[in-house]
Amino acid sequence: MSLDATTIQGETFVVNLGPQHPATHGVLRVKLTLDGEYIMNAEPVIGYSHRMHEKMAENRTYPQYFANIGRIDYVGAMIYNFGYASAVERLAGIQVPERAEYIRVITSELNRIASHLLWFGPFIIDLGGLTPLLYAFDDREAILNLLESVAGARLTFSYFRFGGVCNDIDEDFMAGCRAFIPRMRERLTLYRRLVTENVIFRKRVEGIGIIPPEICRTYGATGPVLRGSGIRYDVRKNEPYSIYPLLDFDIPAFAECDSMARYRVRMEEMNQSLRIVEQALDRLPSGPVMAEKVPRVLKPPKGDCYFNVEGARGSFGIRIVSDGTDTPYRLKLRTPCFANLSLFGEVSRGMLLADSLALLGSLDLCIPDVDR
Amino acid sequence: MTELLSTEPIRMLVFLVGIVMFVAFNAAYLTLLERKASSWFQRRLGPMEVGPHGLLQPIADGIKLAGKQIIIPDGVDRVLFILSPVMVSVPVIMNLSTIPFSETIEARNVNLGLLMILSFASFNVMGVMFGGWASRNKYSVISAARVVAQNVAYEIPMFLIAISLVVVTHTFDLRETVLLQSGGFWNWNLFKLGVSPLMPVACLLFFVCLLAETNRSPFDMMEAESELIAGAITEYSGMGFGLFFISEYANIVVGSCLVTILFLGGWNCPFGLYPGLHWFFVKMYGIIFVVIWVRWSFPRIQFYGLLNLSWKILIPVSLAHLLLTCVMVKLW
Prior knowledge:
The structure holds 2 protein chains of 2 kinds.
Chain A: E1 13-17, E2 29-35, E3 38-45, H1 53-57, H2 66-69, H3 77-92, H4 98-126, H5 132-151, E4 160-161, E5 164-165, H6 171-196, H7 199-205, H8 213-219, H9 224-227, H10 235-238, H11 259-283, E6 303-310, E7 315-322, E8 328-334, H12 336-342, H13 344-347, H14 353-362, H15 367-371
Antiparallel strand pairs in A: 1-2, 2-3, 4-5, 6-7, 7-8
Helix pairs in contact in A: 3-4, 4-5, 4-11, 4-14, 5-6, 6-11
Chain B: H1 2-6, H2 8-41, H3 57-67, H4 78-96, H5 113-134, H6 138-169, H7 174-180, H8 199-213, H9 225-228, H10 238-262, H11 277-295, H12 303-331
Helix pairs in contact in B: 2-3, 2-10, 3-10, 4-5, 4-10, 5-6, 6-8, 6-12, 8-10, 10-11
């Protein structure tokens, strides 16, 4: 149910949603102009966790910046590692061994599932259902344990190195992955039965929070938000990198454009990520996990390059301009959440407060990723 | 002792003190049950530290609440702000004074008991509304408006079903209502299909209205946490908040008592054996458990969905139920 903003004639008032509010999942502030419970205007106010990641890059050597890159989108840090490592490798002309590529894909896809699970639970909490969160965390725990065993960290991974990864995966990790895949498939079926088919849940998300494809294009939205609007765009397919062209997986897209479509995209993506992990484990070649002859002090030649990866929340692009020294001259981050948030003001106009919060939840925002 | 109890004022006093203790005990231990039940649904342990299996947790919580400073923010309407927790909690205690827990345990038998409970139950919403309005917080004002719309919408079907039960039992007296259902479970109002074939549906509707009246999930518009922080009670602290909390649980107790008395035969045993207080409590706490179960299983409904449900489904069905019951009673 929504209302045409121009037809309402009444007294409005301003509510500050956040920066401390249960529904914003971070220090995001949205200035809402409300008429009753209808939103007349929504203006996201960002920057509460701005940490100058781009400027910091200009003062740090290339390997030192790995610690920063894991803290931008801390929920999907592995994939951001992937983007940064690949960008610098392209700039410096480093070849990555095949085994390392496979390991990178396996860990990234596991991280994508973990990230989607961390969206799934809080999204249902936004709608008032408190129980699924604990189930999602249970599954996420299994992934984090696996990743901890190879990367040593549970959240802000700095697992990748220029030319490979820092630790080889062992038999325990592979056995753990193989045990996790059928278990996660079972849980996805459980979530479908308990949450997706729940009548109240469907009423809350079906036909609500409609983002037309044109608006997605206007604001540059990517990731599940874009695919939930029916545009089948995924960096892994459209601008393939690493070993993704060798693997068999689908890009889910739903044309309904509502919150349910975005929900279904993410649930299906978890399934596809499981497929990718399964195939990559089967085909895992033996060999080294680090390229030889990576210089100890990395000084990429003069020039610039752009590298795009499919993060858990959308396309994450990184542009590095090198002046031949050991620090980047300029480093630009194109983060998906910033673009995905920017459409909120236009889409939420005329919606009810409760529905707009469901919309905000379905965008899957990571606030440090917006603010950088 | 029995002599002393037989004098009416002293008997009343004893029972009222008993009821206040019953309310306090229930409010305290229902919070524990809520936390424990939620932890069972969510595959965790719940409170375990204070006492064995967290059994002393409510006492610790109570001490903490009582020890907290009551903050009255600047610019609030002081009179209403202080009055509204009282307005919320007193009607509940009044309600429990007329509920017959067993054949002998009842503070005061009122021959219009059902009417009294329903009217005091609608008093409760006023307290919440005043509290939200007086808080001078935008979230609280939104919540206050929601509460009024919600309670008006759900009292109507609730009253309609109550009236159709009166048509069946010919009495407003709760004690007599229970006595009419004695024997076995086939005598319960729930299974009086001969008088009204829709009786189980009416019971379900009554339960839904009970959830909405007590502002429980999936109808917890009053304190929709992810939307309105804590709704009408955002600005309350210490025992001001505590009274809202106690009355929420006491309201659930009253509602469950009503369902037990009206539909499930009160203190009667399903098989006619050993009727008494224990059967009343078994049924009442069974219903309370279902209320908690629903809360931890379902997401929150939208506000317009809630009003649609009431005006488009509950009211027509309960009205039809009333008419059907009237016709059936007239025919037989």
